[in-house]
Structure to design on (504 residues):
């Protein structure tokens, strides 16, 4: 397979279809020819600030069209884009910038406020009128860098849901499989892809670039806003989108969903966190499109397993597959390993390991973490608890680090969350382990109720006991106005443990 790069694909589409729509942001659409020229000008601006092959270009910005333009521009120079999470604190941003050591930092207004007190030894460019003027003054000459397969194209920092963020080095080879994935997802030059996830996340810049790589039209949102999702789908006749389960749940709960025109939507992909079969069944009924579960992570350059639409039939012969994230892509190997590092028998829980040319080159300047995550024979240890059936279907249980051990029994929060999501009064729920004098730890459920509904702790306790083994049932329920989440919608279990980890 030819190793595509962000630059090579935009060059090809601009040459073949310069007037085709490529990228829409806040009602402004760029054609492929426009995108090619704009990214070349930005590449020239970066080069004028000393950026060359291998240098890091950090971006601290909410979603905007320039984010993709900078990624393409860096590819034209052989530079590396570092996507930074704008929801972090200034202290955390400072630590990541010190680790990434960029040649240039580009910010929007949000990013500028975050770095205002930081002393940085490199230029800081700010999106806006001044940036636009500097870009317009540059020639639209393509620097022409081609890019080797093993060359690092992106460094994305892990979300921090399991500890201090690490810089994940993603190569041209790994990211080139996004074009292969686009074909698996049924994307073509006629596709319109709505991208709502943050671009500093693989679910944003990875999935978000898929239709662009296929020559289709990408509609980018500044951030997840459910009313806007429901408005943009009919406006641009959106055919594809990717949403995490928590956003799917918010979509289903939104008043605007009643009567919304979703007829153009062909495929809704979900992933980044488990989605229980209760929520999925409701989504299939309300949204009326095909569904596909995509499983992947930053370290794998995105999706490594999918559950295809034909498996999403609650009344079909295999309804249990609704709980699966699918089977490995043709270029991916998956296996489940026990605590001793041996293959786990089918149907038993262990850690999911991944081997693929999509895998990261390692963690930036962190050889110890890289060695701990990747075995000498190239298997990445995902830290996801999973089971695999005899046909290769993977069933995610939970993050290994979120597992609760109560009285010697392993309890996976996602299983409890799935059950509680079926309660008519529950809008959102997160489960963590809290200390227990007798059992060591026990589950606590933090619950957000649907507007206009009521439920007591006794109600929810009775509901879980009717649907789960007694030892899995939460010993405590707390009712909260919202749950802590990161920008991609994942529950922040460390923050939940900080807030409620004592059981109070």
């Amino acid at each position: 397979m030819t190793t595509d790069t962000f630059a090579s694909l935009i060059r090809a589409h601009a040459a073949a279809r310069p007037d085709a729509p490529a990228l829409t942001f806040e009602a402004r659409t760029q054609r492929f020819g426009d995108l090619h020229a704009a990214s070349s000008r930005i590449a020239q601006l970066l080069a004028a600030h000393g950026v060359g092959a291998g240098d890091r270009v950090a971006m601290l910005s909410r979603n905007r069209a320039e984010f993709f333009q900078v990624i393409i521009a860096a590819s034209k120079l052989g530079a590396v884009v570092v996507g930074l999470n704008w929801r972090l604190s200034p202290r955390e941003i400072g630590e990541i910038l010190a680790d990434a050591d960029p040649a240039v930092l580009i910010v929007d207004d949000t990013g500028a406020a975050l770095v205002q007190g930081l002393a940085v030894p490199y230029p800081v460019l700010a999106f806006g009128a001044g940036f636009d003027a500097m870009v317009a003054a540059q020639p639209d000459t393509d620097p022409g860098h081609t890019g080797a397969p093993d060359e690092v194209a992106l460094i994305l920092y892990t979300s921090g849901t399991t500890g201090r963020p690490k810089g994940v080095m993603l190569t041209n080879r790994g990211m080139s499989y996004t074009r292969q994935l686009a074909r698996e997802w049924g994307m073509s030059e006629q596709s319109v892809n709505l991208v709502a996830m943050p671009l500093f996340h693989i679910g944003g810049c990875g999935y978000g670039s898929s239709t662009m790589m296929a020559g289709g039209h990408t509609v980018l949102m500044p951030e997840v806003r459910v009313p806007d999702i429901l408005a943009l789908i009919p406006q641009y006749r959106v055919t594809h989108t990717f949403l995490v389960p928590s956003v799917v749940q918010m979509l289903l709960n939104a008043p605007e969903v009643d009567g919304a025109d979703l007829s153009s939507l062909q495929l809704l992909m979900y992933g980044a966190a488990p989605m229980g079969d209760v929520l999925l069944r409701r989504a299939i009924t309300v949204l009326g499109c095909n569904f596909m579960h995509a499983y992947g992570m930053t370290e794998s350059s995105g999706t490594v397993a999918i559950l295809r639409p034909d498996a999403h039939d609650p009344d079909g012969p295999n309804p249990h597959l609704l709980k699966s994230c699918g089977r490995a892509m043709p270029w991916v190997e998956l296996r489940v390993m026990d605590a001793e590092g041996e293959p786990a028998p089918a149907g038993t829980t262990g850690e999911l390991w991944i081997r693929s040319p999509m895998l990261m080159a390692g963690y930036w300047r962190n050889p110890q973490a890289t060695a701990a995550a990747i075995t000498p024979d190239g298997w990445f240890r995902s830290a996801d608890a999973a089971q695999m059936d005899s046909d290769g279907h993977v069933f995610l249980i939970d993050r290994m680090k979120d597992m609760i051990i109560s009285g010697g029994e392993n309890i996976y929060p996602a299983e409890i969350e799935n059950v509680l999501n079926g309660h008519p009064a529950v809008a959102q729920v997160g489960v963590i382990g809290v200390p227990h004098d007798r059992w060591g730890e026990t589950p606590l459920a933090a619950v957000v109720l649907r507007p206009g509904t009521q439920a007591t702790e006794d109600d929810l306790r009775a509901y879980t006991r009717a649907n789960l083994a007694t030892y899995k049932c939460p010993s405590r329920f707390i009712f909260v106005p919202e749950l802590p989440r990161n920008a991609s919608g994942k529950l922040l279990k460390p923050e939940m443990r900080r807030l409620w980890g004592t059981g109070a």
Observations:
- The chain has a mean pLDDT of 91.
- The first helix runs from residue 6 to 16.
- The two ends are 55 Å apart (CA to CA).
- The chain has 16 helices and 25 strands.
